[in-house]
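S1.2 Input.
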Amino acid sequence: MTQPHEALNFATVKIKNISIDQTAVVEKAARFQKRSIKKESKVWGLKLALNMIDLTTLEGKDTPAKVKQMCYKAQHLHDAYPDLPTVAAVCVYPSMVGFAKNEVKGTNIKVASVSTAFPAGQAPMSVKLDDTKFAVDQGADEIDMVISRGKFLQGEYNYVYDEIAKIKEACGKARLKVILETGELGTFDKVRKASDIAIQAGADFIKTSTGKIKPAATMPVTLVMLEAIRDHYYATGKMVGMKPAGGISNAKLALQYLVMLNETLGADWMNNKWFRFGASSLANDVILQLEKQRSGVYGSKDYISID
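S1.3 Output.
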């Protein structure tokens, strides 16, 4: 099998054209939303969800001070609730990686950086490589790249594969999350094909969205991607991670995603090494739901910092 760090031609690998039954996927995803979760399992799931979050700031107005504030929150989600886990990672632009790295030093929190001319990806390959190398040199533990959706939609799958493989090589030891921007792909068949290309090209994670367009993550789209990961694992024994991003803003929905993850991929994926939520606003609702489980009262969001 082709090693994931090698930038090889797409013609050397085989990507099957898999037809996805849209009705079946939508109905199956809906069933995960009807599961009842009891109190002890709910508390465990909520804490797990917190520990899977990539706390994110990706705005043109980002400053070192804003990144510092976010990194503090990543380590102190709610000081009045001492047994909370930290989030998995903080995610920033390449120019902010050095500041974030310094702020989370000595913790288990990873620093992720977007790259490849995020969010549109409309830049030459040389710019995308420089973007990635700069982030890695600044200390990024993880790189979240965007694929060239225009090239993919033109059927230039060779280009998309090679692009991912070259960025993977530029990552060095940093793990690579490949953002498909599923809201722009159009169909489940295309989501599945893009997932398969990304996985074979060396993605450590596949990710639904940038969070900059709608629709972002949905349960049916995530299920299609989870099944691509499952099929690859069955064929090769290699695990690949999953990151739904955008639109997951409440604890109830996060738990439904975890049920779907467990029933599709199993217990080995139920940790932040292999699953992440790209949803910064999710953290506050999870904290409030945990407080409700503890005290019986759903508190006010005014008592939890936004950033």
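S1.4 Remarks. The chain has one domain: 39-303.
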